[in-house]
Amino acid sequence: MATPTGNQFTYSTIDTAVLNTTLADYSGTLTDNAYNSNVFTRILNQRAKKLINGGGAIAESLIETEQNDGGFYLGSDPLNNTQSNTLATVEFKWQNLYEPIQLTRDEERQNSGDMHKILDLAATKTTLSEKAIGKRLEQALSTSVAGANNLVDLSILVGTGASCGSISGNTDTFWQATSTTSGAFATQGLTDMTTATYAVSGGSTEDNPNLYITTKTVFGKFSNTRLPLERISNGDMSANAGARNLTFLGVPVVYGNYIGSGRLYGLNLNYVKLAVDSATDMVTTPFVTPTNATVKVAFILWRGNLVTNNRRRNFVLTSIS
Fold it and tell me: Of 63, 69, 77, 318, most Cβ neighbours within 10 A?
């Protein structure tokens, strides 16, 4: 605690070590809360997160074309002993994200005299910050956001042209998702969903979209197409990561808070991953005091990107009304 000595005093009214220990003990809960604050990051965290131990970039191996080097043979027929190189690598840049947790000296003094009051204040400030960083991450993963220059959002990942990572869909047609201009959901929405789903599927039981995500408005229109019993009971919900949803072809349909207007995405999470630096996954820094301000500040840090190694297994419907 601060003890005045003449005209001088030590800045801190609370032991910073206590704050840092408390914040460190809470770190696991903070990580879960930040991801669980919205349906999109919750699903990515539980079903599609890929931890990576740093590196200069995020590298994903992909298959450009199917292999066709084998065949049928009889007896002593010579066999082809070479394998074509159908593999390639796509690289994604890292994106950094942060949120401050700040305690001012005024706040410390207003809550002085009781350690529990200070810790409660720090807990409240931490909760505000974890909600803010979760919201910021959801928004930036859903649609383009100023400042997140390296982050791949859904509008980029599920696109037909332009660059997604180090490969351009304009140059390499295998690096294109399916994009369909839709219209009134009541008259063509389900048909467009069905057509697009089969267009990006590898077969009736393999490489199918396993998540549909859209806006709240489009979700409401989709809900109106379901029979009352379907709205209550939708079969297997094991893939929805605890989110409230309906299903289409047995696959969860959910809505996000920042999905682009009139859009519905069909995602195959076997090929879409939230790549995260294992040492920067909603971690917290210690509280420090800047030299030019009477505050203590810590930061929540995140480093990662949304990546894919098979862009063409995803689709988007646009202009839904």
Answer: 318
Q: Which residues contact 143 (CB under 8 A, 6 or more apart)?
A: 153, 154, 155, 258, 259, 260
- pLDDT, tens only, 252-265: 999 999 999 999 99
Phi and psi at 233, nearest 5°, equal -125, 115
Q: How many CB atoms lie within 10 A of CB 47?
A: 17
Angle at which helix 39-47 crosses helix 16-36, to 10 degrees, equals 90
Average pLDDT of the chain? 86
The answer to the question of residue 80 being in a domain is no
Whether pLDDT at 107 is above 60: yes
Among the residues of the chain, which ranges form H helices?
16-36, 39-47, 105-110, 115-142, 154-157, 190-200, 216-224, 228-232
User: pTM of the full predicted structure?
Assistant: 0.85
Would you say residue 303 lies in a domain?
yes
Q: What is the pLDDT of residue 131?
A: 92
Domain that holds residue 112: 16-63+89-318
DSSP-derived 3-state class of residue 94: coil
Q: Residue 274 is encoded by which pair of tokens?
A: 């939230």
